[in-house]
Every structure is written in C-alpha cells, then in structure tokens.
Protein: Insulin-like growth factor 2 mRNA binding protein 3
Organism: Gasterosteus aculeatus aculeatus
Amino acid sequence: MNKLYIGNVSAEASEEDFETIFEQWKIPHSGPFLVKTGYAFVDCPDEKAAMKAIDVLSGKVELHGKLLEVEHSVPKRQRSCKLQIRNIPPHMQWEVLDGMLAQYGGVESCEQVNTDTETAVVNVRYAAKDQARLAMEKLNGSMMENYALKVSYIPDETAAAEGPSAGGRRGYVARGSSRSGSPSLGTRPKMQSDIPLRILVPTQFVGAIIGKEGATIRNITKQTHSKIDIHRKENAGAAEKPITIHSTPEGCSNACTTIMEIMQKEALDTKFTEEIPLKILAHNNFVGRLIGKEGRNLKKIEQDTETKITISALQDLTVYNPERTITVKGTIEACARAEEELMKKIRESYESDMAAMNLQSNLIPGLNLNALGLFPSGAPGMGPSMSSIPPPGAHGGCSSFGSETVHLFIPALAVGAIIGKQGQHIKQLSHFAGASIKIAPAEEVGATPQRRVTIAGPPEAQFKAQCRIFGKLKEENFFGPKEEVKLEAHIKVPSFAAGRVIGKGGKTVNELQNLTCAEVVVPRDQTPDENDQVIVKISGHFFACQLAQRKIQEILAQVKRQQQPKPTSGAQPPQPRRK
C-alpha cells in the first residue's frame, strides 16, 4: 500500500520536478518517478512515508500552476470494499464516526492509522463494494467540524479472490480488533472515555482520599491526568460515598488503583480490620452483557484476575437509581486487573449502543432522545439522581403528541422476567416510561408461544417502554449472544387509511420497508373491528420497529389533517367575550 498516484499534473512537469518537491519536503521514495500525461506514479519505502506525502502534498503544493492531488495507487481490481478516510477532526468521538459510517452500509472493521498529523486517519472495510462506493461518494469532501474529509480507496487484496459480498443491510457487523476500545480518534492528546469510572468508597476514608486542603486528590488528578468528583453531599449519613473519575481508560484505572492504595494505608493506620473491596457502579443496561450467557463473561474475569465478583440484585434498582453495584474482592493488584476488564466490557457495550442510537435517532421524528434516560449521560456528576429522566406524567418533547397504542408480542417464557417479582419490574418500567403496560392473560392466546404486551402512551413513552423490553429480553438470554432481538408489533389504523399505508401498487409499504429495514405487512381481506380499524404488522429489531411506527403515525396524521373540514372563506373566528 506504499505506491502513490499523483494527479492533476501539468504537461510541463518532469521527473526532476518531483525529485525536487519530495526532497524539499523530506519525503523519502524508493524508486524513480513514472511521469505520464496528466499524472505520475512513485513508490515509497513504507506506509508512513506514503501517508506523509499524501498529507503534506495533496491539495497543498503547486507544480507549474496546478495543485497536485496525491493518493494511494489502487489497481481497479483491488478497488473494492476498503477505504481510507483522512483529515478527521482530532477530537471526534468513535461513536459519532461509527454512526456516520454505518449510514452507507455494514462496517466490518475500522482501524486507526498512526500518523504525524494532528487530524486522524482510519482504514475502513465495508461488507459490500457498492456500500464502499456510496460512502466514498458521500463523504469525500464533506465537512465535519470545519475539516473537509478526504476519502480514497486502498488496496483490497482479497477482492480478486472473493466473490461479491452478501452484505446488504446497513449497520454494524463484526468489529475490527485493532481499536482497543478507545472512544476518541484524537491521536494527540488522548481523549477521555465517554463512560466515567464510578466507585463507592467507605465514608470514613473520604478525608484521606481528599487529603489536607485537597492536596492528595490534586496529586492523584495531576498524576493520572483525570478529573475526580467526590460526591460528599450525596446520601447524607450514608456509609459509602460515590466517586466519579473522568479520564482515558488507563487514567481511570490508575486513579482507581491509587485510591485503593490510600484506603489500604488509612485502614492500617486506623486499625480498620474489615476487608475493603472495590465497588464499581454500572448502569443496569450494560450488566446483562457484562455477566454473559450463564455468567460466562464474569466467570472468565474472575478466573483471569483471581478475584471474587458479585453484582447487586435487580430488586435494589429504582427509577431514579438505575445503577448496580459490582463488588470485587481480592488483592489491590487483582482488583485493579478486574476493574480494567469490567470497564472494558462496559465501554464496549456503551459504544455499541450509542452507535446504534446515533445511526437511527435522527430518523425518528417527535422524540427527545436526550431526555430518555436509557443510557448513562457521561456528563460530570452523572449519578444515581439521573436528572435526565422526566418525572411521571411528563413526556419531554412529546407533549404535543397524542397517546398511541402498540401491541408487542414477546416469547411466552419471558413474561415472568418482564413482570418481575411481585410485579415490581413492570411497575417500575411503566413508571419510568410514563406508559400503561399490560400483558394479556395466557388463556387469551391459546397454544401460541407468544404473549401480547399492550403499551399505551405518547411516542416518547412508547420508545422508552419498548426499548427496555427489547433490552430485557437480551439481558435475560431469550436471544443468543450473536442473535439480534426481533419482535413483532401490531398497530391499528382506520380501515379507510390502510390503503394510504400500502400505497399504489404497494409502493408506500415497500419504501417503508426499504427505509426502516423492518417487515411491514397489512394483511389483506381483514374484517375491520368494532371501531372500524385494521391491523398493521411490523417485525424487526428495535430501531427498525420504532422507525416504522413513527413513519406510519406520520401517514395517519397526514390522513387525519386531510379529513378535517376546511373553514369557509367568510367564516370569522369566535371573538373572546369581554368581561
């Protein structure tokens, strides 16, 4: 990948001209320049030299009045699924990039390239050739935070050997292995993780951690390049206080280890004899994936780090405290290793969730996703208060939207998990979402392996309730570790509007399916119910179902507006009565 193509070359250009330019910019090359009419080729000794030539010369250096264009030389047969994206803003977050790339197809790998430039460079492999071509057409030259992206093909050595890829659906498949979980693309400096490390410490050790006039905590902050918040005023009189550490994953781990060492020393000095475990706080959304099927992930971390790990019960959760406590027992060194592995899993889960959220959220109108409280905010002071969750009865940005009813079908075996012990989980879910949630009795559906869940509420409440149900089914392993949760939802529409959902010759419903990746069916020959309504069936993963529901509601709203009688031209609006 070290052969360069130089374009926009003047007819007057010679081999000596290029020798002079490369020498002037101190760019090594390993062979002669092959100069043709309008373009040239040259080999570089390694990828670093090739990247320097592209970064320094392309679009920046003139030769005989023409700006040179420099990029990797890629034979046509190797212009397949691999792209290089350059000039990425240095502080751009991984999940933002992920969401942007996934708009054009399935991303099989995304690897950062080490360069000497301030901006970042990544090599991306798409699942299909047409997806890579679309991404190149759309992204090349597009602006991001005042940086113009530069996209070019890089050699795909497997292109000649492989047949056409079957990857068609847009979204993420297997990730590349070289990213090491860092959420920031910035090569200098490293950016902090979006997920801070939150730990609980015994209240009696808080003074030692802060130190005289704050000297100890300042020293930890300086040495680990982190921001540390000790929430002393939370839970007055409690035996433990939360600490939030914002830094890179490495910085978080170093600060945590230092805090454990300070507590150990203070315990010896004060003759405190009880064991001091490491307690990590984690949002419940990530705990199911952290534990793994049949507890395999957690068992492996225990074995690899020689620790004993327990997680607080679901019953301890409330709407305003969605965090679980992970207790790690072992030596300080063992607990530090366990913290690294646990937080790595949590950050991977967060990154995956946010990539999916960013990919689809802009396509779902009428929803205030920032107010959903489905994921930890990552903001300083993020904690049990979860201030982003609206109070019961408040529905964020959706107050102007009417209530909707959706029938969601779940595996019959999952009903107990959704209801929870003594109905606790479904009550909390209903309270959290601001929706009415009812599960049909078993006898209603006979021998079918599914049960109907009826959810009533405005769009934001629908989104929150359905998201939690999809997540719960994944957490409780009703779907395999590599299996996407796909459910069927039914919504009722007026019989006279069913034709608008289908469209002429099925055009609207086909466009709906292509846009949302959901299966949308309006069964033929339905008999309208007592309210003159018929069923529309929607099947797919969470975001596909949500997007299809929103688009169908848009169609219904449009039909409703058209049904309203228009005011006559001479009619005057009623005047307010004077008191």
